[in-house]
Amino acid sequence: MVAQPEAPRPAVGSASVRLAKGMTGTPRRLGLAGPASGGGLAVAVTVLSSALAFGQSLPPLPELPLEAYEAGIREPIAEALRRAREKPEDAERSGRLGMLLYANEQYELAAACFERARALDPSAGRWAYYLGRAETYLARSDRAVSSLREALRHLPDYLPARLILARSLLEAGEAGESRALYEGIVTEHPQTAEAHYGLGRIAAAAGEPAAAAGHLRRACEFFPGFGAAHYAIARAYRALGDGEKAREHLDLYRRDKLGWPSVPDPLLAEVLELKTGATARLRKGMELAEAGETEAAVLEHEAALAADPALARAHINLIRLYGSRGRPDKAEEHYRQAVALEPGLAEAHYDYGVLLVGQGRRDEALGAFARAVELNPSHAEAQNNYAFLLMTAGKLEEAARHYRATIASRPDHRAALFNLGRILVLQGRPGEAIEHLRQTLTPEDEETPRFTYALGAAYARAGEREQALRHLREAREKARARGQGELVASIEKDLRALEGEEAGPR
Questions:
Q1: pTM, two decimal places
Q2: What is the pLDDT of residues 453-501, one digit of tens each?
Q3: What interhelical angle do 485-503 and 448-461 show, nearest 10?
Q4: Which of 96, 301, 319, 383 qualifies as a cystine partner to 285, CB 3.0-4.6 A?
Q5: Furthest CA-CA distance within the chain
């Protein structure tokens, strides 16, 4: 088995899968939950081998736990099951049932239906493709390889199937064949980020970090939000002894840990059109929110709640969505409903705190953030926001304690490092401040001039004039390059004072 130098990937079978319509790729997890979760049903499914043992020529349709599904899912699945039983020799009806089950993340049950549809119509490559996809979710790499190879005999140029086959081969320990397939893909489709990532994984596992970094750089160029590729390239740079680049890519990984590229997948699009039920509406609403379509996202969340009023995640998301649309009354209504359903969810109190800050209700926001950090001390953003309100209220020691808690959860939290540094300077501890402020200088962005300025000021307070002058001059140049005129003026004022001290009386 080839070692996999990549970021931890979500477990299969969760009800929290995000796939863009008509695209293929690794699911991006959203934290949903519900009775339709593929991993939560222990259902015995008879597949082809056991059917043949009893002298049957076809794998049977599975027995479905219809009573366990929410109403929005149960009805269409029950109808598809009825139709499949009505014409048991019809591949399309068995396959359609499988598609509905797959759309609602019932992968093992879906696989049984796809087995039957493939047996009924071996010339239709899509049933083998769907079966291969289902088997990847079930961690059956060897069986996925077999099904996807069969699919490609009928659909030889279907890029999504080639990518999933290459990934399955790698996971099945067939690195050589996987590499050949990935190389063929990048020759024909050179901008396919996942193929470059696969080649990077293989090179890293073979102890070739320089080659791995080259492939992974291309993966990130073609898809900058590729979280797993950033994690893998950080490991490659660490192996090459380049700590600075490793830290840069780890920071990019943390920004979007589950980002994954996709390619057009019309066959999958047909499946995704069949999603039903409250969790499907919630998922669609979250996708719309990520795309910035907040009005449509609100409508989908409300539709999810109409199907299942106890969906706490939908209430929590609506706190933020209604807040962004200038509807604090509705946001507060959903906050009350969320905490009534699940009072121990730190995220609800955090989002409510953000809403209150936007309304200028800082004292109430303090209470909301305090509750969030009480429930989840590792919630970095709640700790950071709580610390900021304490700091601006003059409670520096308490604020410093919560900034330290932020940094304990997220060591690279620049705002917390910066503000803790400011507090330490005010407390007459510039040496400690410098240690925190130095960590704010990367990555290079619009905040870097301000953070460099703060570091220079801390050096000045510590009596280290040469270091202070160097960082203040560097901050001035960075601010000039970004057109930050007010900041330039402030830095120059401090520079004149410090340079005057250095010159001494004339």
A1: 0.55
A2: 999 999 999 999 999 999 999 999 999 999 999 999 999 999 999 887 6
A3: 20
A4: 301
A5: 107
Tokens of 430: 């510039």
Q: What is the tens place of the pLDDT at every residue in 222-232?
A: 999 899 999 99
If you count them, how many residues does the chain have? 506
Residues facing residue 29 across a β-bridge: 17
pLDDT value for 396: 97
Give pLDDT, residue 13. Answer: 30
CATH of 17-264 given 1.20.1440.230, 1.20.120.330, 1.25.40.10, 1.20.1600.10: 1.25.40.10
Which residues, at least 6 apart from 485, have a Cβ–Cβ distance to it below 8 Å? none
Tokens representing 78? 């029950």
Q: Which of 87, 140, 83, 93 is nearest to 114 (CA)?
A: 93
What's the whole-number mean pLDDT along residues 107-115? 97
CA-closest candidate to residue 318, choices 293, 278, 285, 358: 285
Q: Answer left, alpha or beta for residue 255, where phi above 0 means left and psi between -120 and 50 means alpha.
A: alpha
Q: How far apart are the two ends of the chain, measured CA to CA in Å?
A: 75
What are the boundaries of each domain within the chain? 17-264, 422-506
Dihedral class, residue 265 (left if φ above 0, else alpha if ψ from -120 to 50, else beta): beta
> Element (H or E) spanning 108, and its range?
helix 107-120
Instruction: Specify the CATH number of the domain 422-506.
Output: 1.25.40.10
Shared fold status for 17-264 and 422-506: yes
- Phi, psi (degrees; rounded to nearest 5) at 311: -80, 90
Secondary structure E strands in 144-196: none
Residue 17 DSSP label? E
C-alpha distances (whole Å) from 149 to each of 58, 199, 246, 344, 356 are: 21, 20, 37, 48, 55
